[in-house]
Amino acid sequence: MADDIIADLQPALRIDHVTKTFPGVVALDDVDLTVRAGEVHGIVGENGAGKSTLMAVASGALVPEAGSVSVGGQPLRAGSTHDAQELGVAIVLQEPALLPDLTVAENMYLGQPPTARPPIGQLRAWSRDRLCEWSDDVGIDPDTRIEELEPEQRFIVDIVRALARRPAVLVLDEPTEHLAGEDVERLFAAVRERVRDGGAVVYISHRIREVKQIADRISVLRDGCHRGTFDAATLSERDIVDLIVGRRLDAVFPDKPALVDDVAPVLSVTSARGRGFEDLTFTVRPGEIVGFAGIEGNGQRDALRALAGLGHRSGSVEVDGTPVRRKSSAVAYLTGDRHREGVFPGLTVRETIGLRNLDKFSTLGVVEPRREREFARTAVAELAVKTPTIETPIESLSGGNQQKALLAGVLRRDPRVLLIDEPTQGVDVGAKSEIYDLLRDSARDRGMGVVVVSSDGIELAGLCDRILIFSRGHVVEQLAGDEVTEARITGAALTATTHRDKADRRAGAAVRWFAGDTAPIAMVGLAVLALGLWTSLSSAFYLTTPSIAGLLALVAVLGFVALGQTVALTIGAVDLSVGPLMGFVVVVESFFLTAESMPLDRVLGWVLLFGVPLLVGFVNWALVDVVKMNAIVATLITFIALQALSLVLRPQPGGLFDSRITDALTFTLGPIPVAFLALLVVAGGLQFWLRRSRTGIALRSVGSQPDAARLNGLSAPRVRLVGFLLCSLLAGLAALFLLAQVGSGDPTSGIDYTLTSISAAVIGGASIFGGRGSFIGTVAAAFLVTQAIGAVTFLGLDAAWSSYLPGAMTLIAVAVYSRTRHLARTH
What we know:
CATH class of the largest domain: Mainly Alpha
Number of strands: 26
Radius of gyration: 32 Å
Strand content: 15-25%
Number of domains: 4
Mean pLDDT: 87
Shape: globular
Strand order of the largest sheet: 6-7-8-3-9-10
CATH architecture of the largest domain: Orthogonal Bundle
Helix content: 40-55%
């Protein structure tokens, strides 16, 4: 009877005939799935089975080629994360969709549907209350930036903000990978509570024991297809593993030789630890191939890179009994990311093979072409690389032959240990067999030790003599001999029960302060005082009223355009057009705001003062978000166009501005120009807007990480449009005060402000990578830059120092901020 009632209820989530393809891959093939309200629905499958892709479609993050999704009976508009939020879908991804440059509280705010977000003034208290619902001693400050949190803390924040929505459908994609044991129990308790309240939970995991423990029903995906839905109580862990694997060996592997047990190991690793793994101890015998296996992200790949010297590690690593501190010629590494880290487009086969072996055919650093060609030909012949000539561009070869060419370069170094990541990724079956033979023959004939990381269980079972199973950074099982089968490898990885230990690797308070928003303002303030003291001791005129008034008037112009540049940097762009835009506005206004102008002309002039910058901002946005140009290239085009138009309209300076307008714009209260006071008011308002408004948070979100911002329901193009318009509008305001200083339409009056505006914004704390900016810091930095340029004259320095000083200050600021922010960031 109860089952009949459940069957009559409207499904919480319904996926009908969904197909999703990527280039060369069918990720989902006509998949149907129904998730009931009040149940935990487990989804299991191997890497690449389509689990995460299916939920990305269900959450609006991906648009399928066919099929539909409905939530609570309401259709979901394909590709709309905003609509998914409104319908009650919350998703916690394998990599949390959090904005690294925003605080915990701001990320929790964005994680709520727009209609359910708390008032920003109450955001900190609201966030603390939600975190305390997870645990009274959660230890996460709502004001901490996400990038400063430990990985497990980031997952907790993502889970807590999803739970705070009381979603109709909660999707958890590998939620426990970075959680300590007590947090796993808290998660399970929260899941059960959500189900009791009538919500539906989709639980995706490779950890079969967890799925069995928490799920009511389990669906199995394999090769992009739905292979069935089962009551969890009717399946054993072994049954689930068999359903997940469900395929036979499809590659030919070389025979595994008998290995001598009492021979000295070629590689010995004792108590090694590093990012992503710990307490790694194992040996490799001469001629032996050892595999690292486990669900993706459990430390096996981190361990391999650390052994290759590509990451920090501690512990003991010895090759033939000799300690290896960092990198060693006795250890060779071949990356699994062939396209980004292996093959260099533009190099020939000869150059690719020779790149790792330059010392073998060069004398005093000079390559001998004949020896290099002979070396490459020998390598190509030994490894049967199919290439027309050794001068053929490496990228024109097939994937398998590219991999063999890379392997040739590595093996020709005759290493004692070969570390290889995904040896056959992206190559055809025939090339796979050849690579397997090469690895086995090289290990046997050279007495070399080989360590392989692969996500393919069949490959590991067929190639390796021994397998180490990684789970949450630990080796949890070792398989050898007849135990090395795909089923055992998959089963061991899926049924691992290890938990991560809590860690505290957070940077010290001083580093966090330097990485924050206060440090730039304080450092700039100290620099202003120091430079001011030095200059005043060198010139009695420096602190007089006329000198101060002139300095502040110049600060006002630079300050306004630097505020605009700060907006651009915050959204992840650089606007090179601001300087010529200022000059162009000055030129345009020189035709309308003169003493001889008619009243209607003056009205049009004031309209153009705002209309021209807004038009330029729109053009910049269209080039970036519609034409898809890089922001620097797009604004450089606008830079050139505006400067050319200025010179066409005013080949020489001309058109005197009405003195009544210039007098009003240069009016001072004592030594302080009204323009500078206006700058302070605008900067203060923008600072409040950036930190305490939805639009300000959206700007920083898009600049911090556009993809994550989209997953949080934000439209990056719309947000960038606001940013480009505001940037140009502030440059237009800067032009208004500039025209009062230059007095006439000078076509070159704004050019220098492009670089100085970037300097002021960066010195003031804006990140060149986006997501961060301080308008107060920018005004302080504009003061410092203007002061430094003016101080050159008072100090009697060469005019070139007016460029040296701002440039040096910018470099120092970038170096200090980047380094401290890197140190404060946890990984």
